[in-house]
Design goal:
This protein is of the alpha/beta class. 36% of the residues lie in helices and 17% in strands. It is built from nine helices and ten strands. It has a six-stranded mixed beta sheet. A four-stranded parallel beta sheet has the order 5-4-3-6, sandwiched between helices. The radius of gyration is 18 Å and the shape is globular.
Length: 306
């Protein structure tokens, strides 16, 4: 066994204190248990392994990606394990911990300036364009996460874990949308097992484009890119819930204090949406959501430093 074998098979817990008495049971998959502390480790193994297999990533090649941090750290972990050079385009909009973690795994960082430290459509597009330039170098494989269907396959195993850990007793899956790969991958598998399972997508209220609203700046890292992501498959989604950044941050703090689950801001958004859906489904229903990453990636942000 080596480091990449440690990805997946994460724990699932039932929340006890934050859930309304009249609501559904809510279970949280602790994706912070993965080696980099993020669910993104799953997609990183998938996209790199598949690119190796079909020759898109040559031996001794270089990996390039644009990312808010968690995907970058996951790709850098896999690159280090397999011996590839990796170049990451990222920004000051994302936590210092994420940037430092990518660099610790050997990633070479290119920083694109943000608008007041917020995620905006322009920032994402600027990052993509910078990655496109880096990807023109010979021997380079651009993982291009927003368009890479190999990322979707990386989450099939997550769905199977959820199915088995709930013994097939799941009524809804709730998760925030960045590239849409996680929700699409999980939905694809869960709906094969149980066609009437509800798949709930979550997005920042300040940039509720999936709900038909306008793009805008927000501070829920890793989600809400400001446009419909190419991997988005609306036929698999039953509902979209919008959550305010400040509410997501407060729920993230409460999750740590009241349930001892230390996670990032998108997890707070996930939980708010899960509670709303749970109140509608009522007692006896079971909802699964993700603690998508570890709170250790955010200790010096305003989520935890007040």
């Amino acid at each position: 066994m080596y480091i990449l074998d440690a990805i997946g098979n994460t724990s699932m817990i039932r929340l006890r204190k934050l859930i309304p008495a009249n609501g559904a049971e809510i279970y949280v998959k602790l994706e912070g248990e993965n080696p980099t502390g993020s669910v993104k480790d799953r997609m990183a193994v998938s996209v790199i392994s598949r690119a190796e297999t079909d020759g898109r990533l040559p031996a001794g090649g270089t990996i390039v990606e644009y990312t808010g941090g968690s995907t970058g750290a996951s790709l850098a972990l896999v690159a280090a394990a397999k011996g590839y050079r990796i170049r990451i385009v990222t920004s000051d909009a994302f936590s210092r911990e994420k940037l430092d973690q990518m660099a610790a795994f050997g990633a070479e960082l290119t920083l694109v300036p943000s608008e007041d430290g917020k995620t905006t459509k322009k920032l994402i597009l600027d990052m993509i364009e910078e990655a496109r330039k880096l990807a023109q170098a010979p021997g380079t494989y651009w993982t291009d996460q927003l368009n890479n269907h190999d990322a979707v396959a990386g989450y099939y195993g997550l769905a199977e874990e959820i199915w088995h850990q709930t013994n097939g007793e799941i009524d809804a899956f709730v998760h925030s949308v960045g590239t849409a790969a996680t929700s699409r991958g999980v939905a694809t598998v869960l709906k094969k097992h149980k066609p009437n399972v509800k798949i709930i997508a979550v997005e920042p209220e300040e940039s509720a484009v999936l709900s038909g609203g306008q793009a805008g700046p927000h501070k829920i890292e890793g989600v809400g890119v400001g446009f419909i992501p190419p991997l988005w498959e609306p036929a698999l989604i039953d509902e979209v819930v919008a959550v305010k950044t400040d509410d997501a941050k407060e729920m993230t703090r409460r999750l740590a204090r009241e349930e001892s689950v230390f996670a990032g801001t998108s997890t707070g958004a996930n939980l708010i949406a899960a509670i709303r859906i749970g109140e509608r489904l009522g007692r006896g229903a079971k909802i699964v959501t993700l603690a998508a990453d570890s709170g250790l990636k955010y200790v010096n942000t305003d989520v935890f430093r007040r």
